[in-house]
Amino acid sequence: MLKNHHKPYAALLAFLFIFLVSCGNNTVYEEYVTIEKSGWEKFKPVVFEINAPDTISSYDLFVHVRNNNNYPYSNLYLLNTVEFPDGYTITDTLNYLLAQPNGKWVGKGVGALKSNKFSFRATSLVFPEKGIYKFTFWQAMRQDTLEGIEDMGLSIEKAITDGENN
Asked: For the chain, where are the alpha helices, taking DSSP H only?
């Protein structure tokens, strides 16, 4: 009889835990692509196709890089194109710092694998139209095959504005 008496409390605690965990997560999209063990080939892009969450809310975009100790540089240059649903394309060069001048990796992680989360844009954005957006990344490190990058990822998080609560 004592067990049945505690069931409502257990259900309430489970609900509260799920609610608290979900409130802290504004991620609406997150995907990773694993790079081949032999390295990231210069002309082999990493592509993410995303259905715009909506055309009203502001979003923050992030590039995720997982590297290991075989990565020979302190930074990572990427070429990027974003293709809009109507075919309009924007091209840019991105530069992310993976190691400090003293050689210490800036990412988080234990052992040889480090994870980094970089802002894709300095400001939040609103997707201007509904449909599929295609984000394409190429390594631009002047290497035919770049070693040490294990995964590339892209995430989209709903931007938190002043006065907004979950």
From this structure: 2-23
C-alpha neighbours within 13 Å on the C-beta side of residue 139:
23
Contacts of 155 by beta carbon, 8 Å cutoff, 6+ apart: 27, 29, 30, 31, 61, 62, 64, 117
pTM for the whole structure: 0.81
Residue 93: inside a domain: yes
Domain at 63, CATH number = 2.60.120
Distance CA 128, CA 55 (A): 6
pLDDT along the chain (166 residues), means of 10: 47 40 74 97 97 96 97 97 97 97 93 95 92 98 96 96 53
Count CA within 13 A, CB hemisphere, residue 98: 24
How many other CB atoms are there within 10 angstroms of residue 24's CB atom?
7
Nearest to 37 by CA among 78, 68, 74: 68
Range of the domain at 103: 28-158
Does residue 17 belong to any structural domain of this protein? no
